[in-house]
Amino acid sequence: METPLLHDEHKNTTDIDQTLVNRVGLESKKLWKIAGPAIFTAICQYSIGAITQTFIGHVGALELASVSIANSVVTGFAFGIMYGLGSALETLCGQAFGGGKIRMLGVYMQRSWIILITTACVLVPLYVFSPHILMLLGLTPQIADSAGKFSVWMLPQLFAYAMNFPIQKFLQAQRKVMVMAVVSAMVLAVHVVMSWLLILRLGYGLVGAAVSLNLSWWLIVFGQLVYILVWKSDGAWTGFSWLAFSDLFGFVKLSLASAIMLCLQFWYLMVLIVMTGHLKNPLVPVDAMSICMNINGWNLMIGIGFNAAISVRVSNELGAGNPRAAKFAVMVVSVTSMAIGVVAMTLVLTTRDYFPFLFTNSIEVVNEVRKLASLLAVTVVINSLQPVLSGVAVGAGWQALIAYINIACYYIVGLPTGILLGFKFNLGVEGIWGGMIGGIVLQTLILVGIVSFTNWNKEVKEAGNRLKRWGGSTGGD
C-alpha cells in the first residue's frame, strides 16, 4: 500500500513533468510560428537559384559548372557580405521590438539600406572583373570565362540583396514571417515557368538563367515593400526619416561584426568549390560538388529558418527582460533542429543513387556524387545545429566573439587540414571536404560550450544598454 508521503512525492513529480511538457509545447508553438514560414521562405528563395541550376544542368556540363561557380564564388561572396551586414538588424530590431520601441524598427531598416546599397556599389568591380579573378583563383580559362560572364549579368541581383535583407529582418523581428513566405512562394512559381521558358524552350541558356534570376529577386523585393509601405506596418514604418543618418558609425560597427561572422561561414563552403577546381580534370568533381552543395543548401535553409526563429525569440525575450525564457527557447530549438538533421541525414543516405539524376545526365558526375554522399550526410547533421547556435549569437549580439571563433576553427584548423588531406595525401575532393568538416565540428562544439555557460541575466542588461546607445530611448511609444 502506498504511503501518503510517497503519494505526495509521486504527485509532485507528475506535476513537474506536466509543467515541463506544457512549457516545451508552448515554446515549440512559438518556435514553429516563426520557424515554419521562415524555413518555407528560405527554401523558396534558395530554390530560385537551385532550380536555375537544375535547368541549366540539362543544357551542358560547362553551363552547369559556370552557374555553380558564379553562384558559389562571386555571388556567394557578395551574398555573405550583404546577408551578414543585414543581420545586424536581427539584434537591433528584435531587441527593440521586445522592448516596445516599435518606431525604431523603420529607422534601423533605413540605416541598413544606406549601408548595404553603399556596399553593393563597392562590390560592383568584383562582378565586372570576375573572369580574371576566377582565373587567379586557379580555375581553368574555359570555366572562369564562362562563369565570369554569367556573374556580370547577375549585377541586378546584387542590388536586390541590398534592399531585400534589411526588409526581411524588419519583418522577421515583428514575427511577420508569413508575408515573406507568401511572396516567396508566388515568385518561385513564376520563376519555375520563366526559367523553363527562357533556358530550355527558347534556348537562351546562361542569358535566360540570368534574366530569370534577376527578375525573381526584384519581384521579392517589390512584393515585400508593397506590404510595408502600402498595406500594413503596425507603427514600425512611419516614413523616411533623417534619423537614418544618425549614429551610422555605431551601426556600421555592429553590421561589420555580423558580416564578418556570417561571411566566414558562407565563404568556407565557397572555398570548398574553389579548392575542388584545383584538382586534375576538375569539371566532373566541380559538378559533383555543386550538386552536393545544392542538396546541402536546401537542408541548410531549414537551419536558417531555425536560425531566424531563435534569433527572434532570444532578441525579443532579452529586450523584454526575460532571461529564463531566452535560455529555455535555446534548449527547445536545439533539440528540435537536431532531430530534423538526423532525418535529413537518413534521406541523403537512402537516396544517394537517385537524387544526382535530378541535376545531371552524366554518369561520371552521378558516380562522383555517390562517393561524396557519406560526407554530405555528415554535413547536413552538423548544419542542423550550427545555424541555431549562430542565431543565438546574433539574437544576443555576440557577433564579434563568434567572428574570432570562426577564423580559428575554419581557416586555421579546417581549411589547412582539408588542403593537406586533399592534395598532400591525394584523397582528392573527399579529403578537402573531410578536413573542412573537422573545422565545422570544432566551431559547433565551442558554440555549445559558450551557450551552455552564458549568464542570461547579464545579457538582458546588455540588451537594455544597446537600445539606449543606438536610439531606442527616442523611439518609445
Task: Describe the fold and architecture.
The chain has 477 residues and is mainly α. It folds into two domains: 32-246, no CATH class; 258-471, no CATH class. It contains 16 helices and no strands.
What are the defining features of this structure?
disordered C terminus; globular; 2 domains; mainly alpha; 16 helices; 84% helix
Question: How many DSSP helices?
Answer: 16
Low-confidence stretches: 472-477
Question: How much helical structure, as a percent, in the residues?
Answer: over 70%
SSE ordering? HHHHHHHHHHHHHHHH
Please report which band the strand proportion falls in: under 5%, 5-15%, 15-25%, 25-35%, 35-45% or over 45%: under 5%
Computed Rg: 23 Å
E-strand count: 0
Termini, distance in Å?
A: 61 Å
- Mean pLDDT across the residues is 83
Layout of strands and helices, then pairs:
Layout: H1 4-57, H2 61-86, H3 88-98, H4 104-128, H5 130-136, H6 141-153, H7 155-173, H8 177-201, H9 205-231, H10 248-276, H11 283-319, H12 323-350, H13 363-396, H14 399-424, H15 428-452, H16 456-469
Helix pairs in contact: 1-2, 1-8, 1-9, 1-11, 1-12, 2-4, 2-6, 2-7, 2-10, 2-11, 3-4, 3-7, 3-11, 4-7, 5-6, 7-9, 8-9, 10-11, 10-14, 10-15, 11-12, 11-13, 11-16, 12-13, 12-16, 13-15, 14-15
InterPro entries: MATE_euk, MATE_fam
Protein name: Protein DETOXIFICATION
Transmembrane segments: 113-130, 150-167, 179-199, 205-230, 251-275, 295-316, 328-352, 372-394, 401-425, 431-456
